[in-house]
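QUALITY CONTROL LOG
STEP: pairwise intake check
CHECKER ROLE: data steward
CRITERIA: each record must contain a sequence immediately followed by its structure tokens, with no blank fields

ENTRY 1 OF 2
RESULT FIELD BELOW
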Amino acid sequence: MARRDYLNDPDAPRANSIAVAVSAFIQDEDGSILLIRRTDNDLYSIPGGQVEPGETLTQAAIRECVEETGMRVQVTNLVGIYSNPQHVIQYDDGEIRQEFSICFRATPLGGVERTSEESREVRWVAPEGLPRLPIHPSTMLRIEHALSGRPNPFYT
């Protein structure tokens, strides 16, 4: 399913849904960040997705990492809670979702990197390589907060 993100766009369609989503900021021992290239919008992102009934937020983050990257992770901390009514995501099925995402910090435990239906590429990227990649500003905000060494999680 294709998607289009609108951020601070006065011509954006009005949201008709909200769903709980999670994402995971994962760094290896060298400081590289695990990214996927999404199949729905061709942008790079940290792994993540919607919480499913019957699972906790951290279980959802762990599941999404395995599904999208092949990597098993352990959630270790909270980067922040992101809920911006000015960020809406339009899907080709008619859903227009207001952003609501909880971003966790996680460490890799193992696995074999692989793509999925949601990821056309999985790669580790050094922080200095991020500016050369197409990354949505909402994802960059999470990455910047994770890299900043903030003493407390970010809240909107």
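ENTRY 2 OF 2
RESULT FIELD BELOW
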Amino acid sequence: MARRRRQHRRPGGVAGAVGLVGCLCLGAVGCARGDAVAGGAPAGDPVRVLHAAADALVDAGSSKAHTSLEMATGGTRVTIRGEGVYDYRRGLGRLRVLLPQDPAGAAVRRPITELLAPGALFMKNRGAGVPADKWVRVDTGTLSDGNLVTGGATDPFLAAEVLRGTRTARFVGRTEVAGTAVRHYRGTADLREAAREASEANRGPLGAAAEGFATAEVPFDVYLDEQGRIRKVRHRFSFVNGRQDEPVAVASTTLLYGFGVPAEVRVPEGDDIYAGRIAEE
């Protein structure tokens, strides 16, 4: 499987950084039919198969995505969900992220609109003193988690590229995800290796995550369809959020479906981006 072709498939990074993300957002959702004899293990080394999973998404072009991040903190389990579309060839996505109630039990906060771009995260309805009609821009290469956790919804292509760092993996069995036959694999990826093997735009974010997480090793479960496309991937990160001494266990789940759907995403212009101070939350 030609792995080097991916380096020319995703556009280069977006320079600069504005703002500071003040909230953690957390994760959710998948399964696959094999290409070997029914009921048996599929042909091919699982590690090689998973190294090529991100390339299969680029071949598909686009998809719908459902994301979920979940974390237990202060005796409370917090879950943040997102839903939208992603264009794997341009490296652009749009998600509507739903935040949970605040600790006081107030009404659910307004959804945040997130635009995912090579090297950047744009957020609207961010709050914290940001005008409602303005976007906040964050350089994902400056985030200690590479935006695998901070934005509340892991970038679907970034989640796929974590698998480029797969060190060990095994075939678990055949099952279904949302009615689609899939192959279930379980393994461990190394973020440092993923950063070396990733597309140019994701090397910085994955490299930052390798340094910023409590450990660069990421256990995962992934479900591939018969075209080798990810239908569901669940990562388990060990994250240090700066507010407590012990690492926080974060589970990020991404469900992909509706391959080939239109995914029109436009990055905000300079005048639409907020350049002022963002209040602490």
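INTAKE CHECK: passed for both entries
DESCRIPTIVE NOTE, ENTRY 2: The chain has a mean pLDDT of 81.
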